[in-house]
Structures are given as C-alpha cells and as structure tokens.
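Issue 218. Parser rejects a valid record. Input:
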Amino acid sequence: MTQIPWLDPEVIDFPSPKMALDNPNGLLAAGGDLSVQRLLQAYRQGIFPWYEKGQPILWWSPSPRAVLMPDQLHTSRSLRKTLRQGAFTVTADTVFREVMTACADTRQLSPHQDTGTWITAEMIKAYCELHRRGIAHSIEAWQGDRLVGGLYGLALGKVFFGESMFSRVSNASKVAFVHLVQQLSQWGYQVIDCQVSSQHLTSLGVQEIPRAHFQTLLIDYIKDSDIKNCQTYSPWELTLEQM
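Output the parser choked on:
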C-alpha cells in the first residue's frame, strides 16, 4: 500500500505530481495549510485541495486531466437558443463569497468522496483571500436580482483553473460558463482546467489529456511574473457575442 506524503507546515514544497500516478484519482499528499503561498505553489503545478470537513487537507493531481481549450467550446442548439433569449444577466466578481457558498449549499459531490461537500468554511475563507488579491474570480448568472447560477476559479498566467459551479435553474451554470470562456478567449487565455471530467463538462467540449501534457501546458502558460503581479478587476457585466 502506497503511503501518502505528509506536508511539512513550515515548507510549501509539494512532491512531484508524478508521484500520484499509482494513487486512486491522483491523491498526492495530505496536510499543510491553505495559505496563499501554498495554494499558488500547488496550482502552478496542477495540484489542488479537495477534502471534507474533519479530514486533513488532501492534495490531488489526477490523470487524465479534464481541460477545455477556449476555441473548442461546444454549445448545443438548445444552449445557443437559451443564450439568444437573454434569460440571464451575467456578471463577474460581484458576489464571490455568495457563489462559493451556493456551490457548497448544492452539496456537489467530489468524485473522490461518497458524501458531503468539499467546500468547507476553511476553503471559503482561503479562496476569498485569493479573490481579494485578484487571483480567484467568480462568474454569476442572474434572473432579476436572484442569483441562479455561477462558477468560480483561479486565473494564473494564461490558464483559468475552474473549481466549482452551481445551478438553481436549468442551464444557468452553462450560460455562466459560456460567458467565461468567451471572455477568456478574448484575453488570450489558452487553457481552462476543469480537473475531473463529467458528462456535463464533456457536453461543453471538455476533453481529457494525460497529466504530463497538462504539466507542459502549465510551464508554457504560467510564468513567475504572473504569480507576482495578479491583476484585480472591478465587478463588471459580461456581454456575449452573437452565437
């Protein structure tokens, strides 16, 4: 049985993601903390935290990795119809904490766990700090003044790391995702990390690639300067090009 490395709380270095090859779903390490420095070190290596309340922090680097290249976004005929109808107003970075809380409240299950939500109070606090520093961002779908869907993730270099999404009405999260992809494409982003594939993501054009390929993309599209000079954005409304 493979022993999972335990992280030194005083050291932010991680084992090589290659060490996760023989572990189910890419479990790489346990322990450590959710400091900004450790999270940035993790994400730039394709590692992310995923655990339940009462567990130690667990760090993952799955293979294959689910990714979307922005120019490969697929929108079904029904989704394009929904987008043209303009049933939703889509904004960015207006209610980051609410989006995270909504993702937790829908009790979306991790593929690595059987029950519960992995978006703990500790995770919300950590990612809200990343948001304050201009690293984590949210996309929100509204009907009137009601938040009905959205997603959040991290932006580093030319890579967006998607974390979670939620819908309270049909297609709300997909509409938010399409708006995000189009905006990222306009800004020159090259990769959207979706971590683990699902039928929902596959329908949008997400594909699976080997971990080694994903690591190469991270080296190509995230530089040291991207980590040091994260840009903050004021809340804004996203508009969609004609579909």
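Fixed in the parser; the record now loads. Residues 108-115 have pLDDT under 50 and may be disordered.
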